[in-house]
Amino acid sequence: MGPAVFKFLSSEPLHDAQASPAPNAVTEIKCTTCYMCACRCGIRVHLRDGEVRYIDGNPAHPLNQGVICAKGNSGIMKQVSPARLTQPLLRKAGSERGAGEFEPISWDRAYEIMATRLGQLRATDPKKFALFTGRDQMQALTGLFARQFGTPNYAAHGGFCSVNMAAGMIYTIGGSFWEFGGPDLDHAKLFVMIGTAEDHHSNPLKIAISKFKRAGGRFISINPIRTGYSAVADEWIPIKPGTDGALFMALMQVLIAEGRIDKPFLQRFTNAPQLVVLDEGAREGLFAFDPDPAKGPPGDGRNPHNKLVMDLSDGQVKAAYPEGIADGCEPALLGHYTLADGTHVAPSFQLLSDRVAPCTPEWAAGITGIPAERIRALARELGHAAFQQAFDLPIPWTDAWGKVHPTTKARPVAFHAMRGLAAHSNGFQTVRGLAVLMSLLGTIDAPGGFRHKAPYPRHIVPNYRAFNDPAMIQPNTPLNAAPLGFPANPDELAIHPDGSPIRIDHAFSWEHPLSAHGLMHNVITNATKGDPYRIDTLMIFMANMAWNSSMNTMGAREMLNQKGADGEYQIPFLIVCDAFQSETVAFADLVLPDTTYLERHDVMGMLDRPISEFDGPVDAVRIPVVKPLGECRPFQEVLVELASRLKLPAFTTAEGGRKFKDYPDFVVNFQPQPGIGFLMGWRGKDGTEHLRGEPNPNQWAMYEKNNCVFQYHMPKDQQYMRNWNRAYLDFAKDKGWRQRNDPVQLALYSDTLQTFRLAAQGKTAGRQPPEHLRERVAKYFDPLPFWYPPLEETCTDLAAYPLNAVTQRPMAMYHSWDSQNAWLRQIHSHNYLQVNPLTATAAGIADGAWCWVESQWGKVRCMVRHSEAVEAGTVWTWNAIGKASGAWQLAPGADESRKGFLLNHLISEELPSAGTASGRISNSDPVTGQAGWYDVRVRIRPAEADAPDESYPQVAATPAPPGVRGVTEQVLAYFAGGKRK
Ligand code: SF4
After folding, report:
1. Which of 190, 506, 667, 696 makes an SS bond possible with 678, Cβ 3.0 to 4.6 Å?
2. Atom of ligand 1 at shortest distance to CA of 39?
């Protein structure tokens, strides 16, 4: 024990926080961007003699305005974490994966290993390299690397996280919640939050809710659990997990039946009046269209403006735009009509009305657990806020067809939704339901409603086609499209002529056609099975796949160790890049020590995930405030170095030399199109241009001088109604955020989905799904939103497993990083299963007692906490607090491993499926591939009296890898004001 430990154990004060620093101490404050969660608040890092002493919020930052949370403040403890890796490591020859036996190697050796192996793969079969990343913020770079390498096997964590939220909203209104849009609480009167825990837009949302409440706004939280933001809600409406879609259907039923809809908005700005073909055949369910080629190609799913409407004012069928919106026109929303050629049609709103008609509050009550009268009253509250509390902002604007609107109409009912809707296998259609509900109320990019953030709204469907041509996977050749994108029809699926998937995760195949974020949760399973083929090298960055980032955690660990008949691992080479000794590190063949967010450059820009505000685009950077620890190197630098060594074209000069010195150089000089780069501030040679301009060699210095953030405020008349706002659409095209400046009509009815359904029904020529998937595609690619029970329920004995089980992030922690943080561990060192007292008592489990939680896939033993803040049919816990023994440099017997637990052990990454080669299919949304990890059903029972007081399952501890910092004294010395060793 060092002296600091003795001092720590004594009663003498450790450190006088108010004492002046030593007279000759050098103190300074550096600005950067937080990464203790994904919100990206601006922070000020206070340093003394080069060591981080304190972190606070940056008051000059537009996002958090000086507010900081417990996590952000505790970044200092991440910096001194005992679990920090400090040098590249190679698995010892002869040792088994998972044993955690490594030898340290140099970076040169690490690069040599990677360049040789990956170079050989690229020269022979590039798809044998797969790159999957966790919650990183550099997908513009990682995606570029994969594309340039020539592998389609790339994705980040979105398929495991919230792709249903992104895709469901983008395919309906052209934008989505959180990074790309959110509730305008400055103008809202009613705020309905559904399926949202404490994460996602944390500090900004807290600031907004606080202002909203002070201004007298009404806040309703709909959630199975009352935690986080819901604590300050005026009303909590408990709902059963996976049933939100039924609630939306019933709300729409009431609003339509009672005429509480924004009819002029629907007629002008959505496809509600557009005529859908009702006759059976290849056109069935698609919009009737004007065949004039000047009106745009029909059926390409990307915003053709050639549809038809019935004008009730003169009984004529007209082009929807611009004739159908001319003054005096009255496009029909209801009715059935016959076109001149005899085609039977109806406005899509008629079909929506028919769809929701049977979905009464009484119907939804039996599914959601919310009383019918409460649903009916909620619908009326929504309508009241949208229409009776509407007001006008004195902001004139001009729409895409030249009509001047003298004011901007506020529809002051705002929603916010997130993973509670998304992480179910019915999430895509549920999110569609919410987006259509919001559209009925006219609350899209309106004051007080949902508002976009640049570069959104995108087209419906966005003009980003995912790579889909297997013939283009060629040695030493970049792909001709990015690995991820937004398919608009079956021709854009990533499949072979026989219908089998191109990608290792089966994304963009008939199994999950619109999997815009990939299926990270199936990579290990599929690669182990060799389905659809074997890969050689899997590179994982910042994703804890051997623990909390996998469904079926123990299965994933076994698969990482699985060998074939030849004695080789089924996944022959595993590269793990992480800053910490996570559970996954022990399974790596090669470990790359990453830096922390305080030690590196980073970009949160318009090519990826900017931090835009409602009134204009914002991007931000991280700039190192301290030197990297040991031999740590940022993953960005690793990729730029590797890309240069592999001579990937985008990283190589015409003469074959290295194009970029390092990552900062790459950020400044890389341009996907002229004038457009990773950062939009201070462009042009002299730094006087913004948004678009030549590279500026001093761009990083300008960000450093300006709080690491660039904010652009658009003129008022471009800030609202951006789907149809002429000035905004022109501006956005000019700045490269969109390819065209045409308007984005809301897709209440999705003809895009219908093209997949028609193919599945065999009604169109061209690509059709394999036989075993026909029924599935035809059912779930419904052009109108609908509710269906989560897929897992169809193969579960619901009487035997009567409870839903879900997880959420705690307010004080984010992913697995934080339950090793010395300060944050003092808030949560282990988790409980939270159970309603009625449910727990009926099962005979006392508050604080140990219990078994069992699903049909597995079981865990954990401690129970009685809680009335959860509906009686749901149990839940905080995610990622439970740790494997020996990982993260936690002490033997640490609460995190002995009392903490993961629900992941209860969840399967696959469900039975007739017809597939393996008889199984991903446990995911059949539309998007979103992991259905909130679908699991469980039962609970008391643990046996003689069962050990520790969580189950436990795993054998692994030894500390060489170079891991791992000395607790240093954390204690830090507290004592001593110098870091
Ligand atoms: S909300 Fe997230 S980004 Fe903001 S201070 Fe907290 S941890 Fe950091």
Report:
1. 667
2. 3
